Amino acid sequence: MICWKLKLLFLILSTIMPYISSFPSSPSQFQTRQTDWRDRREQTTPVLNKILDELVKRSNWTQQHIFLSRCREHNVIPKGLKVKIPKGIMNRDQEIRLKKKCESELLQKTIKRLFIKQQKSDEKIATMKLDLQNKFRMSRNWIENTLKWLRKKAENKATTKKKSLKTKFDILINERKNTKNIQDKNKSDKEANRVPENSSPLKKIVYNNSSKVLTAKQEKLLELGLNFAVTPKKFPLVEYIAATENLCQSLEELGDDESMEKAQKIRNMVLNHVRRGVGMKIKDNLSAEDKQIIKEVISDPSIIICPADKGKAIVIEDRDSYLRKMQQQIDEGDYVIEKRKEKNTA
After folding, report:
1. pLDDT at 64
2. pLDDT tens for residues 208-241?
3. Ramachandran assignment for 207, one of left (phi > 0), alpha (psi -120 to 50 degrees), beta (any other)
4. How far is Cα 194 from Cα 328, in angstroms, rounded to an integer?
5. What are the residue boundaries of the structural domains of the chain, listed by start?
6. How many Cβ atoms are within 10 Å of 227's Cβ, its own excluded?
7. Comparing C-alpha atoms, which of 268, 270, 262 is closest to residue 237?
8. What is the residue-wise DSSP string for 281-314?
9. pTM exceeds cut of 0.70
Protein backbone atom coordinates (compact mmCIF):
# COMPACT_ATOMS: atom_id res chain seq x y z
CA MET A 1 0.00 0.00 0.00
CA ILE A 2 2.79 2.37 0.92
CA CYS A 3 4.67 1.43 -2.26
CA TRP A 4 1.63 2.28 -4.38
CA LYS A 5 1.32 5.72 -2.71
CA LEU A 6 4.99 6.43 -3.28
CA LYS A 7 4.68 5.56 -6.95
CA LEU A 8 1.67 7.87 -7.32
CA LEU A 9 3.52 10.71 -5.60
CA PHE A 10 6.49 10.18 -7.90
CA LEU A 11 4.28 10.42 -10.99
CA ILE A 12 2.65 13.63 -9.78
CA LEU A 13 5.96 15.25 -8.99
CA SER A 14 7.46 14.24 -12.34
CA THR A 15 4.47 15.81 -14.08
CA ILE A 16 4.45 19.20 -12.35
CA MET A 17 8.18 19.69 -11.89
CA PRO A 18 8.77 21.13 -15.42
CA TYR A 19 6.13 23.76 -14.80
CA ILE A 20 7.51 24.58 -11.37
CA SER A 21 11.01 24.91 -12.76
CA SER A 22 9.77 27.37 -15.41
CA PHE A 23 8.58 29.85 -12.79
CA PRO A 24 11.18 32.29 -11.53
CA SER A 25 12.56 31.19 -8.22
CA SER A 26 13.71 34.65 -7.23
CA PRO A 27 12.89 38.38 -7.85
CA SER A 28 15.99 38.66 -10.03
CA GLN A 29 14.44 36.29 -12.58
CA PHE A 30 11.26 38.44 -12.74
CA GLN A 31 13.43 41.49 -13.28
CA THR A 32 15.37 39.73 -16.05
CA ARG A 33 12.19 38.83 -17.94
CA GLN A 34 10.83 42.36 -17.62
CA THR A 35 14.11 43.82 -18.87
CA ASP A 36 14.08 41.43 -21.84
CA TRP A 37 10.56 42.56 -22.82
CA ARG A 38 11.56 46.21 -22.57
CA ASP A 39 14.57 45.60 -24.80
CA ARG A 40 12.43 43.89 -27.40
CA ARG A 41 9.90 46.73 -27.14
CA GLU A 42 12.63 49.31 -27.77
CA GLN A 43 13.90 47.30 -30.73
CA THR A 44 10.44 47.43 -32.32
CA THR A 45 10.40 51.27 -32.29
CA PRO A 46 11.85 51.71 -35.83
CA VAL A 47 9.34 49.18 -37.19
CA LEU A 48 6.49 50.94 -35.42
CA ASN A 49 7.60 54.27 -36.86
CA LYS A 50 7.60 52.78 -40.35
CA ILE A 51 4.13 51.36 -39.78
CA LEU A 52 2.95 54.78 -38.58
CA ASP A 53 4.37 56.43 -41.71
CA GLU A 54 2.63 53.89 -43.94
CA LEU A 55 -0.64 54.36 -42.07
CA VAL A 56 -0.40 58.16 -42.47
CA LYS A 57 0.29 57.78 -46.20
CA ARG A 58 -2.58 55.34 -46.55
CA SER A 59 -4.95 57.69 -44.72
CA ASN A 60 -3.98 60.57 -47.03
CA TRP A 61 -4.42 58.37 -50.11
CA THR A 62 -7.82 57.27 -48.83
CA GLN A 63 -8.92 60.89 -48.45
CA GLN A 64 -7.66 61.68 -51.94
CA HIS A 65 -9.49 58.63 -53.32
CA ILE A 66 -12.74 59.80 -51.69
CA PHE A 67 -12.21 63.34 -53.00
CA LEU A 68 -11.59 62.23 -56.60
CA SER A 69 -14.53 59.81 -56.49
CA ARG A 70 -16.82 62.66 -55.42
CA CYS A 71 -15.43 64.83 -58.21
CA ARG A 72 -16.20 62.08 -60.72
CA GLU A 73 -19.75 61.71 -59.39
CA HIS A 74 -20.44 65.48 -59.58
CA ASN A 75 -18.65 65.85 -62.94
CA VAL A 76 -16.03 68.35 -61.78
CA ILE A 77 -12.28 68.25 -62.50
CA PRO A 78 -9.58 69.41 -60.02
CA LYS A 79 -7.22 72.08 -61.32
CA GLY A 80 -4.25 69.70 -61.27
CA LEU A 81 -6.00 67.29 -63.66
CA LYS A 82 -7.31 69.85 -66.18
CA VAL A 83 -6.13 69.47 -69.79
CA LYS A 84 -5.27 72.32 -72.18
CA ILE A 85 -5.90 71.65 -75.88
CA PRO A 86 -3.78 73.69 -78.39
CA LYS A 87 -5.93 76.10 -80.35
CA GLY A 88 -6.29 75.98 -84.11
CA ILE A 89 -6.16 72.19 -84.45
CA MET A 90 -9.92 71.67 -84.55
CA ASN A 91 -13.13 73.61 -84.11
CA ARG A 92 -14.52 74.70 -80.74
CA ASP A 93 -16.99 71.83 -80.29
CA GLN A 94 -14.33 69.23 -81.05
CA GLU A 95 -11.93 70.88 -78.59
CA ILE A 96 -14.56 70.77 -75.82
CA ARG A 97 -15.38 67.09 -76.48
CA LEU A 98 -11.70 66.08 -76.60
CA LYS A 99 -10.94 68.09 -73.43
CA LYS A 100 -13.77 66.40 -71.48
CA LYS A 101 -12.71 62.95 -72.69
CA CYS A 102 -9.03 63.45 -71.75
CA GLU A 103 -9.88 64.89 -68.32
CA SER A 104 -12.29 62.03 -67.57
CA GLU A 105 -9.71 59.40 -68.54
CA LEU A 106 -6.99 61.15 -66.51
CA LEU A 107 -9.27 61.31 -63.45
CA GLN A 108 -10.08 57.59 -63.77
CA LYS A 109 -6.38 56.65 -64.07
CA THR A 110 -5.50 58.76 -61.01
CA ILE A 111 -8.16 56.98 -58.93
CA LYS A 112 -6.81 53.63 -60.11
CA ARG A 113 -3.24 54.59 -59.15
CA LEU A 114 -4.38 55.61 -55.66
CA PHE A 115 -6.13 52.26 -55.23
CA ILE A 116 -2.91 50.42 -56.21
CA LYS A 117 -0.92 52.52 -53.72
CA GLN A 118 -3.36 51.57 -50.94
CA GLN A 119 -2.98 47.88 -51.75
CA LYS A 120 0.84 48.08 -51.69
CA SER A 121 0.70 49.94 -48.38
CA ASP A 122 -1.46 47.17 -46.86
CA GLU A 123 1.07 44.58 -48.04
CA LYS A 124 3.95 46.49 -46.41
CA ILE A 125 2.06 46.79 -43.12
CA ALA A 126 1.25 43.06 -43.15
CA THR A 127 4.94 42.25 -43.72
CA MET A 128 6.01 44.45 -40.79
CA LYS A 129 3.39 42.80 -38.56
CA LEU A 130 4.96 39.42 -39.31
CA ASP A 131 8.38 40.85 -38.41
CA LEU A 132 7.05 42.00 -35.05
CA GLN A 133 5.66 38.55 -34.38
CA ASN A 134 8.51 36.37 -35.67
CA LYS A 135 11.64 38.49 -35.32
CA PHE A 136 10.86 40.35 -32.08
CA ARG A 137 8.57 37.65 -30.55
CA MET A 138 5.78 40.12 -29.73
CA SER A 139 2.38 38.70 -28.92
CA ARG A 140 -0.57 39.00 -31.30
CA ASN A 141 -2.64 40.80 -28.70
CA TRP A 142 0.07 43.42 -28.20
CA ILE A 143 0.48 43.87 -31.98
CA GLU A 144 -3.26 44.38 -32.57
CA ASN A 145 -3.58 46.87 -29.71
CA THR A 146 -0.53 48.79 -30.91
CA LEU A 147 -1.90 48.92 -34.47
CA LYS A 148 -5.22 50.27 -33.20
CA TRP A 149 -3.36 53.04 -31.38
CA LEU A 150 -1.24 53.80 -34.47
CA ARG A 151 -4.33 53.92 -36.74
CA LYS A 152 -5.98 56.47 -34.47
CA LYS A 153 -2.81 58.53 -34.49
CA ALA A 154 -2.62 58.36 -38.32
CA GLU A 155 -6.28 59.35 -38.66
CA ASN A 156 -5.69 62.37 -36.44
CA LYS A 157 -2.76 63.42 -38.65
CA ALA A 158 -4.91 62.98 -41.80
CA THR A 159 -7.68 65.23 -40.41
CA THR A 160 -6.00 68.33 -41.85
CA LYS A 161 -5.80 66.71 -45.29
CA LYS A 162 -9.46 65.76 -45.07
CA LYS A 163 -10.52 69.32 -44.25
CA SER A 164 -8.43 70.84 -47.04
CA LEU A 165 -9.85 68.40 -49.62
CA LYS A 166 -13.40 69.10 -48.45
CA THR A 167 -12.79 72.86 -48.82
CA LYS A 168 -11.30 72.27 -52.27
CA PHE A 169 -14.33 70.22 -53.35
CA ASP A 170 -16.73 72.94 -52.16
CA ILE A 171 -14.75 75.54 -54.14
CA LEU A 172 -14.95 73.41 -57.30
CA ILE A 173 -18.71 72.99 -56.91
CA ASN A 174 -19.18 76.75 -56.41
CA GLU A 175 -16.99 77.54 -59.44
CA ARG A 176 -19.06 75.20 -61.59
CA LYS A 177 -22.29 76.84 -60.40
CA ASN A 178 -20.91 80.33 -61.05
CA THR A 179 -19.69 79.31 -64.52
CA LYS A 180 -23.07 77.83 -65.36
CA ASN A 181 -24.86 80.98 -64.16
CA ILE A 182 -22.56 83.18 -66.27
CA GLN A 183 -23.11 80.99 -69.34
CA ASP A 184 -26.88 81.10 -68.86
CA LYS A 185 -26.78 84.87 -68.43
CA ASN A 186 -24.63 85.35 -71.53
CA LYS A 187 -26.95 83.10 -73.48
CA SER A 188 -30.02 85.05 -72.38
CA ASP A 189 -28.29 88.38 -73.17
CA LYS A 190 -27.29 87.08 -76.56
CA GLU A 191 -30.87 86.02 -77.29
CA ALA A 192 -32.18 89.38 -76.10
CA ASN A 193 -29.69 91.38 -78.19
CA ARG A 194 -29.86 89.11 -81.21
CA VAL A 195 -30.48 91.00 -84.42
CA PRO A 196 -33.46 89.63 -86.36
CA GLU A 197 -32.54 87.69 -89.46
CA ASN A 198 -34.37 90.02 -91.82
CA SER A 199 -32.49 93.10 -90.54
CA SER A 200 -29.02 91.59 -90.29
CA PRO A 201 -26.34 93.92 -91.76
CA LEU A 202 -24.43 90.90 -93.09
CA LYS A 203 -27.39 89.75 -95.12
CA LYS A 204 -27.18 90.29 -98.89
CA ILE A 205 -30.25 91.83 -100.51
CA VAL A 206 -31.56 89.91 -103.52
CA TYR A 207 -33.35 91.82 -106.28
CA ASN A 208 -35.23 89.46 -108.55
CA ASN A 209 -35.88 91.37 -111.81
CA SER A 210 -36.41 88.20 -113.80
CA SER A 211 -39.58 86.41 -114.74
CA LYS A 212 -38.50 83.38 -112.70
CA VAL A 213 -40.25 83.03 -109.35
CA LEU A 214 -37.83 82.05 -106.57
CA THR A 215 -38.87 80.09 -103.52
CA ALA A 216 -38.14 81.34 -100.02
CA LYS A 217 -35.44 78.67 -99.64
CA GLN A 218 -33.71 79.75 -102.86
CA GLU A 219 -33.72 83.42 -101.84
CA LYS A 220 -32.35 82.57 -98.40
CA LEU A 221 -29.44 80.65 -99.95
CA LEU A 222 -28.72 83.44 -102.44
CA GLU A 223 -28.52 85.88 -99.50
CA LEU A 224 -25.28 84.13 -98.48
CA GLY A 225 -23.60 86.11 -101.25
CA LEU A 226 -21.67 85.36 -104.41
CA ASN A 227 -18.41 85.01 -102.43
CA PHE A 228 -19.80 82.22 -100.23
CA ALA A 229 -17.65 79.09 -100.55
CA VAL A 230 -18.95 75.56 -100.01
CA THR A 231 -16.61 73.40 -97.94
CA PRO A 232 -14.84 70.68 -99.95
CA LYS A 233 -15.58 67.01 -99.37
CA LYS A 234 -11.95 66.25 -98.48
CA PHE A 235 -8.79 68.11 -97.59
CA PRO A 236 -7.45 69.96 -100.72
CA LEU A 237 -4.05 68.27 -100.60
CA VAL A 238 -3.14 68.75 -104.28
CA GLU A 239 -4.02 72.46 -104.20
CA TYR A 240 -1.90 73.00 -101.08
CA ILE A 241 1.12 71.22 -102.58
CA ALA A 242 0.79 72.96 -105.97
CA ALA A 243 0.54 76.44 -104.43
CA THR A 244 3.43 75.76 -102.06
CA GLU A 245 5.72 74.44 -104.80
CA ASN A 246 4.86 77.38 -107.06
CA LEU A 247 5.90 79.82 -104.33
CA CYS A 248 9.02 77.87 -103.30
CA GLN A 249 10.24 77.47 -106.88
CA SER A 250 9.86 81.20 -107.49
CA LEU A 251 12.04 81.80 -104.41
CA GLU A 252 14.62 79.22 -105.45
CA GLU A 253 14.97 80.87 -108.85
CA LEU A 254 16.56 83.86 -107.10
CA GLY A 255 19.56 81.62 -106.37
CA ASP A 256 20.79 83.13 -103.07
CA ASP A 257 21.11 81.11 -99.87
CA GLU A 258 18.54 83.18 -97.96
CA SER A 259 15.83 82.51 -100.56
CA MET A 260 16.65 78.78 -100.60
CA GLU A 261 16.39 78.68 -96.80
CA LYS A 262 13.05 80.50 -96.86
CA ALA A 263 11.70 78.06 -99.45
CA GLN A 264 12.68 75.08 -97.26
CA LYS A 265 11.08 76.67 -94.17
CA ILE A 266 7.85 77.24 -96.09
CA ARG A 267 7.81 73.60 -97.21
CA ASN A 268 8.33 72.37 -93.62
CA MET A 269 5.62 74.67 -92.28
CA VAL A 270 3.08 73.59 -94.91
CA LEU A 271 4.01 69.94 -94.33
CA ASN A 272 3.11 70.25 -90.64
CA HIS A 273 -0.27 71.79 -91.51
CA VAL A 274 -0.93 69.14 -94.15
CA ARG A 275 -0.19 66.31 -91.70
CA ARG A 276 -2.74 67.71 -89.26
CA GLY A 277 -5.31 68.44 -91.94
CA VAL A 278 -5.21 65.27 -94.05
CA GLY A 279 -6.95 63.12 -91.45
CA MET A 280 -9.29 65.87 -90.33
CA LYS A 281 -13.00 65.40 -90.95
CA ILE A 282 -14.34 68.50 -92.70
CA LYS A 283 -17.77 69.57 -91.54
CA ASP A 284 -20.17 70.66 -94.29
CA ASN A 285 -21.49 74.20 -94.05
CA LEU A 286 -24.48 73.30 -96.23
CA SER A 287 -26.73 70.28 -96.32
CA ALA A 288 -27.07 68.09 -99.42
CA GLU A 289 -30.49 69.61 -100.09
CA ASP A 290 -29.10 73.18 -99.94
CA LYS A 291 -26.27 72.26 -102.31
CA GLN A 292 -28.76 70.83 -104.80
CA ILE A 293 -30.93 73.98 -104.64
CA ILE A 294 -27.90 76.25 -105.27
CA LYS A 295 -26.82 74.06 -108.17
CA GLU A 296 -30.28 74.25 -109.78
CA VAL A 297 -30.45 78.06 -109.47
CA ILE A 298 -26.92 78.63 -110.83
CA SER A 299 -27.33 76.20 -113.73
CA ASP A 300 -30.64 77.71 -114.89
CA PRO A 301 -29.93 79.00 -118.45
CA SER A 302 -32.84 81.46 -118.47
CA ILE A 303 -31.40 83.79 -115.80
CA ILE A 304 -28.15 85.59 -115.00
CA ILE A 305 -27.05 86.19 -111.38
CA CYS A 306 -24.67 89.13 -110.97
CA PRO A 307 -23.62 91.67 -108.30
CA ALA A 308 -25.14 95.15 -108.30
CA ASP A 309 -23.10 98.12 -109.49
CA LYS A 310 -23.14 99.62 -105.99
CA GLY A 311 -23.49 98.00 -102.62
CA LYS A 312 -23.46 94.28 -101.88
CA ALA A 313 -26.81 93.43 -103.40
CA ILE A 314 -27.43 90.53 -105.79
CA VAL A 315 -29.43 91.08 -108.97
CA ILE A 316 -31.20 88.37 -110.96
CA GLU A 317 -32.04 89.21 -114.57
CA ASP A 318 -33.50 87.31 -117.49
CA ARG A 319 -30.69 86.28 -119.82
CA ASP A 320 -32.36 87.67 -122.92
CA SER A 321 -33.13 90.99 -121.23
CA TYR A 322 -29.58 91.24 -119.82
CA LEU A 323 -27.97 90.56 -123.22
CA ARG A 324 -30.32 93.05 -124.91
CA LYS A 325 -29.43 95.80 -122.41
CA MET A 326 -25.74 95.05 -122.80
CA GLN A 327 -26.01 95.28 -126.60
CA GLN A 328 -27.94 98.52 -126.26
CA GLN A 329 -25.16 100.08 -124.17
CA ILE A 330 -22.59 99.00 -126.74
CA ASP A 331 -24.61 100.48 -129.58
CA GLU A 332 -25.21 103.77 -127.78
CA GLY A 333 -21.62 104.15 -126.68
CA ASP A 334 -18.65 105.51 -128.61
CA TYR A 335 -17.16 102.13 -129.45
CA VAL A 336 -15.37 100.89 -132.61
CA ILE A 337 -15.52 97.21 -133.55
CA GLU A 338 -12.17 96.03 -134.84
CA LYS A 339 -12.09 93.00 -137.07
CA ARG A 340 -8.58 91.88 -136.19
CA LYS A 341 -7.91 89.07 -133.77
CA GLU A 342 -6.51 89.75 -130.31
CA LYS A 343 -2.83 89.04 -130.06
CA ASN A 344 -1.48 87.12 -127.09
CA THR A 345 1.52 89.06 -125.77
CA ALA A 346 2.37 86.47 -123.13
Report:
1. 92
2. 888 888 888 888 888 887 788 888 877 778 888 8
3. beta
4. 46
5. 41-180, 198-230+286-333, 232-282
6. 8
7. 270
8. PPPPSS-HHHHHHHHHHHT-TTEEEEE-SSTT-E
9. no
